[in-house]
Write a structure and sequence with these properties.
The complex is a heterodimer. By secondary structure, chain A is an all-beta fold. Chain A contains no helices and eleven strands. Chain A has strands at 5-7, 10-13, 19-24, 31-37, 44-50, 53-57, 64-68, 74-78, 87-94, 102-103, 107-111. Chain B is mainly β. In chain B, strands 2, 4, 5, 9, 10 and 11 form a six-stranded mixed β-sheet that branches. Classes of the chains: A mainly beta, B mainly beta. The interface between A and B is medium-sized, with 28 and 25 residues.
């Protein structure tokens, strides 16, 4: 049973560019959340998608946007990249009403 | 605003010791609390989840307790092993804004052979 799958594993982008990160939830899960984890910090909530709608959003600028597809997979898009966007981006999935979350291995984004 | 604090930030102990990691949160209105393990540069592995109505959960050498009224949780690791070396994160799921987890900054644990 595959867990949460994220791609790519690593990514290097130039300041000002745009990036798309992808996530496939665990089988049976329909809800996907995205988190940003800076080095040495705990993960920070970006937003959550359920039924292809953004259900809740954390304190992140509009440069961060997302999408959920009918098969429950999700994308995180970041526009106009800043050096400060360098971080590990984590995707987490759950089933509606379930108590816990399952996390993927993350995408390491480096902005130069 | 819910805030989660983990103390200590780093801990180094010899193999075989029993140890306790601490987590505190400012708002007791939570659905649950979850402990995770994170190896360097990797994702999060769920260790234990405690519902707000529960006092503790156990899995193997791990035991997590929850005192919601005082805003505290502890993770007890028995007979520590070098393979336990990792960062341990606690996260609460608040009742208000229940779609997100609020994380502490983690405790970086090193077990010395």
């Amino acid at each position: 049973d595959a867990g949460v799958t994220q791609s790519p594993t690593h990514l290097i982008k130039t300041r000002g560019q745009q990036v798309t990160l992808r996530c496939s939830p665990k089988s049976g899960h329909d809800t996907v959340s995205w988190y940003q984890q800076a080095l040495g910090q705990g993960p920070q909530f970006i937003f959550q998608y359920y039924e292809e709608e953004e259900r809740q959003r954390g304190n992140f600028p509009d440069r961060f946007s997302g999408h959920q597809f009918p098969n429950y997979s999700s994308e995180l898009n970041v526009n106009a990249l800043l050096l400060g966007d360098s971080a590990l981006y984590l995707c987490a999935s759950t089933a509606a009403g379930a108590p816990g979350y399952t996390f993927g291995s993350g995408t390491r984004l480096t902005v130069v | 605003k819910q805030e989660v604090t983990q103390i200590p930030a780093a801990l180094s102990v010899p193999e075989g010791e029993n140890l306790v990691l601490n987590c505190s949160f400012t708002d007791s209105a939570i659905y649950n609390l979850q402990w995770f393990r994170q190896d360097p540069g990797k994702g999060l592995t769920s260790l234990l989840l405690i519902q707000s109505s529960q006092r503790e959960q156990t899995s193997g050498r791990l035991n997590a307790s929850l005192d919601k009224s005082s805003g505290r949780s502890t993770l007890y690791i028995a007979a520590s092993q070098p393979g336990d070396s990792a960062t341990y994160l606690c996260a609460v799921r608040p009742i208000q804004g229940a779609q997100k987890l609020v994380f502490g900054q983690g405790t970086r644990l090193t077990i010395n052979p």
